[in-house]
Specification:
The protein is mostly helical and 193 residues long. The protein folds into two domains: 98 residues, no CATH class; 63 residues, no CATH class.
Amino acid sequence: MTRLQHAACLLVASLLPACNTGPSSDGADGGVGGRGTAECQTWKTALCDYEDRCSPSTSTCRSTAPAVACKSDQLASDCAIKLRTASCSTPPSGCALLDLADPAPAITGCNRYAPALCSSDYTCGVTAAQCEAQIAAQLDCSKAIGLEPLFEQCLTDVKVLTCGTQAQPDSCNGAVLLSSPSASCGSLCSSAS
């Protein structure tokens, strides 16, 4: 795996606990924090509270939910109510992270990563087109469902990398949440299904 392919893989956050490398973004008030409207925040907090209550040993919600913006404020509000009263044996239908995640802003953001990295000196003489092709082979932005709050910092940080840099900035590790990461990324990438 080339340095550029490795950089693409490190960018991916997983929905599985052993693989998640993204930063935690819990809200200071016990909420989840991160992206989305107030209604979206309420749903994410209710979802993570539900997962903490029903699956405390396997819940990754508080580390993945901050990356997600919601498709609909109304659906988020409805699901927040359902999640607060749901029993662990019968989770509410249509209220999971993948159900309400709005992929559009995540896909747009993800598609900004390769051009940012490939315009830096990190590529060590590889053309921008070759660089972007190598990253695209590892990072399928069409599967993006969320961007960690530090993603914008990642885009700024990669623009100043140089050829001698051995690792990408910490702000990029796990910065893009994918619904089903590519198997070619190794242990950092796992399917959410």
